[in-house]
Amino acid sequence: MHHLVDASGWIARALRCPDCSAPVVLDEAAALLGCSHCGYRTELPRGEAIVWHDFDGRERPASPDRAEEGDGPVTLSCAHCGAVVIRRPGALALHCHYCLSNLALEPTTGRMEAFDGIVPFLLDGRTARQKFAGWLGAAWFAPGDLARAARVEELDSIYVPCHFWRAQAKTSWSARVGILTTAAEDAAAGRARPSGDPGHVRTRWEDQRGVIDEPIHELESASRVVATQELLELGGFAAAVVVGYHQGYLGSHDAELPVVSQGESHARLRARIERLRADRAESSIEAERHKDFRSETELERSQVRLALVPLYVVAYRYQKDVFRVLVHGASGTVTGDHPVSPWKVGFLVACLLAVGLALLAAFG
Questions:
Q1: pLDDT tens-digit map of 170-182
Q2: Highest mean pLDDT: which of 127-136, 192-201, 228-237?
Q3: Longest alpha-carbon distance in the chain
Q4: Nearest to residue 269, comparing CAs of 181, 346, 168?
Q5: In the predicted model, is pLDDT for residue 8 greater than 70?
Q6: Do 224 and 256 contact (CB within 8 A), yes or no?
Q7: Half-sphere exposure of 343 (CA within 13 A, CB side)
Q8: Which of 213, 197, 117, 214 is nearest to 163 (CA)?
Q9: Segments making up each domain of the chain, as ranges
């Protein structure tokens, strides 16, 4: 039978048992903190995090865990890229996950937005390495010796902060659309033509408007280093998989603290949704031509929660260059950078030119 108690004391003691002070370990699959000495166990929350906060443009209060210097988990800041992390208990290495900087990490103080939820790791480090190796070998434009010559400098796990948003997104758009009509069509519709019109097909310009009014469920990265686009390339993280936050999940992984405020996150979300909606609306215009396209998106009834999502960060070296790859800590999806072989690119260009010349010869 599990002892369902507040496990905050375990974290304050650097993951040591509150009964016997022996080190404890986290079983992420079972969501249990367990003591190997006396058998004491604490079950961490696994139910969906149902907390949502109405966004009214004002920032939420800081977490009470870090209200004063010396309280809460130890945090460190990379002097090179600026990432701020919570170190897992017992961590000794002082290099940055993201930039591998050897510069000193300085303790940080201050207030931060409180976490509402977390997406636990489902992949272990060995599986993440296998996923990375498979991705590396399947990179078509990469040099042929990449999988053999690449040297992994770092593969480590880290929780990355994200704002999860839900809102009603209303996009209003307008454009001038050009419709081709013949003299007969205009006459049948009762549309007068200018005097002296020879009767050929002409373009008639009309105003067209539309509205896209649909709910959205999106995330925006609150990390200084990991961009929203990278998280989306990994497949994102559904809001339904966010469970209630507990520091016990940080027993085996570092966590980056948020550096993007709710207000900035909301502005980024609105701009991104507006770009997506504008592309969607413009592509839906069926006229032969259009001009003066405009769109505006408003987010109504916005709600937000801050959660940590699991990533493996892989840094590998090929020849003199270092590349960074991210592995989704739950699904194993991979995204990142790799060197490009000029020979393979040249071969592709040559093939496309050959096909183009063949088509010109066939239809010329």
A1: 999 999 998 777 7
A2: 228-237
A3: 100
A4: 168
A5: no
A6: yes
A7: 4
A8: 117
A9: 1-44, 47-139+149-174+207-335
| H-helix segments, the chain | 8-12, 125-137, 146-149, 183-189, 228-233, 262-283, 342-363
* Cβ burial, residue 129 (10 Å; 0-12/13-18/19+): middle
Whole-angstrom CA distances from 348 to 25, 35, 100, 142, 248 are: 52, 58, 35, 13, 51
Beta bridge partners of 215: 168
Residues whose CB falls within 8 Å of the CB of residue 108, separated by 6 or more in sequence, listed in order: 75, 76, 77, 84
Tokens (6 digits) for 186: 């205009």
Phi, psi of 348 (to 5 degrees): -65, -45
- 297 close to 269: Cβ distance less than 8 angstroms: no
- Could you tell me the two tokens for 295? 């769109």
Q: Cβ of 99: how many Cβ atoms within 10 Å?
A: 17
**For the range 68-72, what are the long-range contacts, defined as Cβ-Cβ under 8 Å and sequence gap of 24 or more?**
69/109
pTM of the model: 0.79
**Residue listed under structure tokens 């949502």:** 52
How far is residue 195's CA from residue 333's CA, in Å, rounded to a whole number?
A: 65
Q: How far is residue 200 CA from its own chain's centroid?
A: 53
181-213 as b/e: b if 16+ CB within 10 A: beeeebeeeeeeeeeeeeeeebeeeeebeeebe
Checking 284-288 for CB contacts under 8 A at 24+ apart, the result is 284/210, 285/175, 285/177, 285/208, 287/177, 287/178, 287/179, 287/208, 288/178, 288/179, 288/180, 288/203
Residue closest to 256 by CA, chosen among 219, 217, 227, 218? 227
| Interval 275-333: pLDDT, tens | 999 999 999 998 888 999 999 999 999 999 999 999 999 988 888 888 889 999 999 99
Kindly write down the DSSP assignment for every residue of 147-213, as one continuous string.
Answer: HHH-EEEEEEEEEEEEEEEEEEEEEEEEEEEEEEE-HHHHHHHT----TT--S--EEEEEEEEEEEE
Mean pLDDT within 41-70: 67
What CA–CA distance (Å, rounded) separates 92 from 83?
17
**Distance between CA 268 and CA 228 in Å, rounded?**
10
Q: Which amino acid is at 55?
A: F
pLDDT at 55 over 70: yes
